[in-house]
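Meet the record:
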Amino acid sequence: MHPIQTSASAVSLRPNLLQRALGAAVAAMALVFAFAAAPPAHAQSCGGDVNNDGFVDATDLSVLLSGWGACPVSAPTISQVTPNTGPKSGGTVISIIGTNLNRATGVTVGGVAAAILAAHPTVIVATTPASATDGAKTLAVTTPGGTATAVNAFTYVSVATPAWATLIEAAPDPAVVTNAALRTAIVATGWAWRVRDNASQIEMLLVPPGMFNMGCSMSNAWACSPAENPVHAVTLTNAFYMGRYEVTQAQWAARMGSNPSSFQSASAQVPAAQVLSRPVETVSWNTVQGFLSSTGLRLPTEAEWEYAYRAGTPTAFHSMPGFPSGTNDDTQVGNIAWWGSCCGGNSASQTRPVGGKAANSLGLHDMSGNVWEWVNDWYSSTYYGSSPSTNPAGPATGTNRVLRGDSWSGSTLGARSSYRFSGVPVFTVNNVGFRVARAP
């Protein structure tokens, strides 16, 4: 008799090496394919028994082999590209959101290959290539399942960086500039969105030109003062850069050689390593001029300050998590401000490192609270009645300069977008600092 038996009993009693290998292969493939055939109605008797007939045999292998080859791959889709604008020089890191993206073999923007940094089922992170021309470009993602295209999904723009600054980020980040209209307006200026001033190392964000209603925005707890009226339309015709944060102790000391601030020590809330990131304070309007003249920076006008604070919102307090259009609810101020040593607020009677609270829709932090901010204008309680409608710069003369935004020591009254305060130019106190601005 031939040494390889063909009967079922012989196979069970004297399996040879080929049969053992076949059985092992079938079992392994069964685990990999995990029921390529329709799942049986009852439990398998053993791991390799694909058809559940009580035996691991050639029938099981045939079921597995019938599905041999690459697994089907669904076609990719693209639902969103963010950010959707960037400079012609390329280098913008974008997120492509959709489905079936994890096996991407290529991404192109305007027909030019982009560098894929990471690919997941619902998002691809890629870096845009350079483009020879401005304008909207089609974006394509290719996977084994096919190619998805998004027409005009990414727009290249010519972006200029001011001579006095270093580029940080050309196009506005939608996660920071959350107002789509503001993003469009920023791109339309042709200026880079985020830069660093070379002289002071202060980070600055572009504020686009625009129109807004300046004046009274009462909150749930506070009415407006006469100085906040009448509400009047103001148009700012020029883009300008504004400090993303209030000027810090470190930035002041690096330029001026000393630190006038009262809060120079660590506390339970502010560790020693973060002290110099507190805003500089105890600086008069007059003293600030020395810092400005040494850097080429300036103070914003009162109209620029309020326009930048509001960032498209008409409410007492600017946008914050849960309130994308702003709010009049004083109980929400703790989301955007260190305030209230007088009134049960959150400051613990001290300044805090800048940027610790939520920004507004332009990406500006601490516009409410922390320290009052000097602006350039002379103060007049009746100025709004005769203020120019275009680029108002304040009264020609006066005795006090305008302060905005309130501080760690105040209530939600002064934290409102329209509240006006003032001080004589030599006034110094530990809740007054400033924020800088500059034309491109």
